[in-house]
Amino acid sequence: MAEVAPPPQEPPGAESDPRGGLGRLSPPGWAWRWLGARRAGLRPWGSFLDQRRFGVPRDLGELWRRLGQNAERFQSNYLLLFLALLLYCLLSSPLLLVALGVFFGVAVRLRAREAPLVLLGRELSPAHQLGVAAGVSLPLFWLAGAGAALFWLLGAALVFLGSHAAFRELEPPESAELQMEPV
């Protein structure tokens, strides 16, 4: 009798992949959970931009309280604004966009390989493969001025988001609305 060959095995998680069967190229489950938590924490933009809620802090202690509590409260909004600044930065520098395309193209191509990548007789781990992708695209990043773009992005985010967190007044505690004074 002829033996029946076992079916080819798919990468772990590919058989029940709800994201379209991308297998090893799809983001892990923790990334989807993290994105869901950020989406759930998004505050209404009307509340975020309410001009009546802005004012100068009275002292340094209030400034630090505002920075901490507003950063926690509007974390998802700040993340979206940071991503918008990042998108602007990328679209205003086409060569940087090309460098990122080369990096991700090489990284995806290396990750999608069936056989492990062997370089100089040694098998490369996924982290080393990302290093190879970075090494291939590093000259393009240097030519595109990625360092200047990165510092512009960090500076712009610090100014815009930091000033919002510093000047937006704190929300009154929910328990303060429910307290009743004795008559």
Q: What's the structural blueprint in terms of helices and strands?
A:
Elements: H1 29-40, H2 45-48, H3 60-73, H4 75-91, H5 94-111, E1 118-119, E2 122-123, H6 126-144, H7 146-167, H8 174-178
Antiparallel strand pairs: 1-2
Kindly describe this structure.
The protein is an all-alpha fold and 183 residues long. It has one domain. Helix content is 61%, strand content 2%. The protein contains 8 helices and 2 strands. The chain has helices at residues 29-40, 45-48, 60-73, 75-91, 94-111, 126-144, 146-167, 174-178; strands spanning 118-119, 122-123. A two-stranded antiparallel ribbon has the order 1-2. The radius of gyration is 24 Å and the shape is elongated. The model has no long low-confidence stretch (mean pLDDT 81).
> Percent range for helical residues?
55-70%
The count of DSSP E runs of length 2 or more, i.e. the number of strands, is 2
- By helix and strand content, what is the structural category? mainly alpha
Shape: elongated
Distance N to C terminus = 94 Å
Domain count, please report it. 1
- Order of H and E elements: HHHHHEEHHH
| Number of helical segments with 4 or more residues | 8
- Average pLDDT confidence is 81
Main beta-sheet strand count, sense and barrel state: 2 strands, antiparallel
Radius of gyration: 24 Å
Strand order in space, largest sheet = 1-2
Strand content: under 5%
* Poorly predicted runs: none
Biased composition (Pro residues): 1-11
Main location: cytoplasm
Keywords: Membrane, Transmembrane, Transmembrane helix
GO cellular component, one term: Golgi apparatus
